[in-house]
């Protein structure tokens, strides 16, 4: 560990949030544009507003409980667990988490596997663990990337198409984590049903609540499907919500983040990243004017929402993040 890390001026690993010095050394331009981009998102208002003419569907989002049981779970119509129920990944540990989920009052409950949920992946399952055993799901649905999504019917006859799958970009050797894949051989292309309203994955898409550790291939597929809600976890420090609009502003931001990170000296030379920085501001301001001047206050933005639902606070191994509920 270097001196700057000991002085807390540099982060010890990519799984920790970057310090100010980390960000400046990597790309001052990316730091500045990221701040501006999120200010622009805030000024646009909520990405969607539930219709007052029909009952909202409340979706409760949880991820990365790692054998722990959060308290104060909000009531809702649909409960989502986006993976890493367990830390050890055995059938016994997973069953304890499923039993807890079964006892919650939500009408619909769904789970996708995380990279620590080894038992679900036959290639990563611990030797001899749960031979011949099965998870007793009760009323909990397991989503493992089936070809078709699940259509759920809620109060007032409202319907949602829900699709989910595990899988993370490789972070260890074969067998160390479940459902790993190489980034250049990602499993997402063309996999999600076009009509998906709610998407559940364990990994984040890249550049959205992910510390830069998310999946580019997943991001491409999310652009194709454009779900109203995307719930994930995996990167604990990415916890929180982020509006998405799948527009020119977002495209420019993601392109800039791909093009930067080569060092602060590189940012001093004119490049395509400069053009994308201007595009982020231009399209962002344009969208704000359209929202507040042309459409008016109270109008819907027709956007979507990404939720990193990690219940574990950072890399502390302790619960600390509030469970997120979203009304659709």
TrEMBL record:
Q: Could you name the domain of life of the organism this protein comes from?
A: Eukaryota
UniProt xrefs under Pfam families: Metallophos
So which residues are the signal peptide here? none
Which InterPro entries does the record associate with it? Calcineurin-like_PHP, Metallo-depent_PP-like, UPF0046_metallophosphoest
Residues of the Calcineurin-like phosphoesterase domain? 58-237
One MF term in GO for this entry?
A: hydrolase activity
Would you tell me the protein name for this molecule?
A: Calcineurin-like phosphoesterase
């Amino acid at each position: 560990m270097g001196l700057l890390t000991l002085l807390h001026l540099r982060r010890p690993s990519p799984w920790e949030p970057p310090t100010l010095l980390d960000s400046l050394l990597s790309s001052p331009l990316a730091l500045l544009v990221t701040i501006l981009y999120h200010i622009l998102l805030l000024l646009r208002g909520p990405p969607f507003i539930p219709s007052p003419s029909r009952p909202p569907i409340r979706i409760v989002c949880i991820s990365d409980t790692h054998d722990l049981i959060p308290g104060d779970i909000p009531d809702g119509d649909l409960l989502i667990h986006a993976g890493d129920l367990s830390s050890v990944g055995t059938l016994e540990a997973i069953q304890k988490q499923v039993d807890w989920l079964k006892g919650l009052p939500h009408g619909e409950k769904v789970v996708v596997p995380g990279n620590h949920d080894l038992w679900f992946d036959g290639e990563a399952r611990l030797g001899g663990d749960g031979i011949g055993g099965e998870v007793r799901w009760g009323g909990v649905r397991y989503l493992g990337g089936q070809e078709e999504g699940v259509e759920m019917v809620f109060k007032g006859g409202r319907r949602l198409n829900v699709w989910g799958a595990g899988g993370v970009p490789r972070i260890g050797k074969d067998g160390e984590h479940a459902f790993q894949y190489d980034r250049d051989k990602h499993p997402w292309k063309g996999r999600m049903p076009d009509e998906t309203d709610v998407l559940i994955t364990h990994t984040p898409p890249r550049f959205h609540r992910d510390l830069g550790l998310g999946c580019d291939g997943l991001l491409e597929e999310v652009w194709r499907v454009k779900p109203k809600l995307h719930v994930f976890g995996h990167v604990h420090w990415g916890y929180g919500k982020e509006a998405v609009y799948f527009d020119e502003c977002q495209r420019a931001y993601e392109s800039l983040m791909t093009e930067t990170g080569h060092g602060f000296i590189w940012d001093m030379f004119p490049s395509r990243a400069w053009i994308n920085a201007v595009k982020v501001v231009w399209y962002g301001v344009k969208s704000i004017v359209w929202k507040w001047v042309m459409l008016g206050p109270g109008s819907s933005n027709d956007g979507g929402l990404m939720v990193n639902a990690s219940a574990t606070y950072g890399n502390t191994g302790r619960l600390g993040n509030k469970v997120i509920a979203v009304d659709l």
